[in-house]
Design brief:
The chain is an alpha/beta fold and about 120 residues long. Helices cover about 35% and strands about 30% of the residues.
Length: about 120
Amino acid sequence: MKEIDRVLRALRNVRIGVVAEEIELHRAISVALSQAGIHHEHEVKLGPRCRIDFLTESGIGIEVKKGKPYSVAVEQQLERYARFDAVKGIVLVIERYQDVPKEVSGKPCRSLGLRKLWGIAL
């Protein structure tokens, strides 16, 4: 199984209140990854002024966004992360779903909308 699919499967188990602060989402994601046996680090510095929310041992970067951020800025952020050799793929975990390119800088990229997981209509 591709490692990015393994990460997505673990993250689909995240359930947390809609009004949660982003740090609560981080905690829930860390728990879900740990329960799936996915080793990860939190707040990983990839370079100067470039820090990704999570990086798994296999190089899957996870960026978490609460609400509905400006999509162009998010895509630019994902592009910056994908340029680093340590990042082998990227998952955007976002409260409301946002389309992302299937690949960013030649690396797989996926989006996971938490409201869909919670059963909330958009």
